[in-house]
Every structure is written in C-alpha cells, then in structure tokens.
Amino acid sequence: MSTETTDERHPLFMPVILLGGLVFGFGLGLSQMAKPEVVLDFLQFDDLGLLFVMGGAAAVTAVTFAVATRLDRTAPLTGRAYTRRLKSMDRNVLVGGGIFGVGWGISGICPGAAYASVGIGNLPILWAIGGMFLGAYAQGYLRARVSGDSTSAVGAD
After folding, report:
1. Which tens digit of pLDDT belongs to each residue from 46-71?
2. pLDDT tens digits, residue range 85-119?
3. Helix-strand-coil split of the chain, %, nearest 5
4. From CA 85, how far away is CA 71, in angstroms rounded?
5. CA angle, corner 20, sides to 48 and 135, nearest 5?
6. How far are the Cα atoms of 61, 80, 81 from residue 84, in angstroms, in the given order?
7. Where, by residue number, does the polypeptide cross the bilayer (predicted)?
C-alpha cells in the first residue's frame, strides 16, 4: 500500500492518470472488448480476435516492466523506483480470480471494459457497474469484520 498522500503527488499525477484511463478506454472500445457479445464469442472460441488484443497488451506490459525495472531511474510523477509487486498465491487470490472469471464468463464484461462500454452508449451496463461497487463494498466490509477492525475501511491490495 502506498503511504504517499495526495499533497505529496506531482501536480500532473491526476491529469496523467485521467489521460491514461481515456486512452485505455478508447483502446477497449476500438478493440471491441467493451461489447459483451464480442467477449462472449471470444470466450466460446468463436472469435479469437481478442486473443491478439490481449497478447499485444501483455507484450507491451512485459517489455515496459522489463526495461523500466532495469533502468536506475524513478517514476517521473511519484519519484519512486520501478519495482514489481509480487504477491504470493494465496486463497484470496484464487477466490478473487475465480469470482472474476465466473463474472466475466457470465456477463462478457470486466470492470475496465464496463466503464468503456458506458462510453460507447451501453447504458444498461450501469446495473453491472452498480453490482461491482456493491461487491467491492461487501468485500471491504467482510474483510474488515474478519480482521476485527470495523472502524476503518479496508482498501484493495
């Protein structure tokens, strides 16, 4: 978890995040990953075009992290070194991945693509986004109850 406060961030941090989100959403819309019917066709092996989209994204990410972690520089907007955040494969990771996979398979949409789907005019997806918010709240609430800390909100890892 980051200990950096909003006041310590570079003034361009939020605008750059917004721009990155807009580019990401545009890419999801352009690749048609924001259309549940296209994703469901991919998951049923009827249309493997999205395999190239995801493969390209994974390749760009892999190269970026491979290069950025070898450079002896810090991130321009945070001043922190580039590092990979590796986590152990525990029960929470497996359960969370399973829930994500089942939800993606049933609905044909994942959280990022759901927001992009609103941008291309798919307004009924707002029900799914509401469900995502409700699920995230329930996860935080239950996690806080299990840890015995009911006074503070628990953020995502």
Report:
1. 988 888 988 998 999 899 888 877 87
2. 777 888 888 888 898 888 888 888 888 888 888 88
3. 65, 0, 35
4. 17
5. 70
6. 12, 12, 10
7. 12-30, 50-71, 92-118, 124-142
Evaluate whether 77 touches 16 at the Cβ level (below 8 Å): yes
Helix (H) or strand (E) holding 29: helix 13-30
Cα 157 to Cα 148: distance, rounded to the nearest angstrom: 18
Q: Which of 106, 130, 105 is nearest to 118 (CA)?
A: 130
Nearest CA among 98, 131, 113, 102 for reference residue 36: 113
Q: Which amino acid is at 30?
A: L
- Please answer whether residues 48 and 42 qualify as being in contact, where contact means their C-beta atoms are separated by less than 8 angstroms: yes
Local structure of residue 48 (DSSP, 8 states): -
Residues in Cβ contact with 33 at an 8 Å cutoff, skipping those fewer than 6 apart: 39, 50, 53, 113, 116
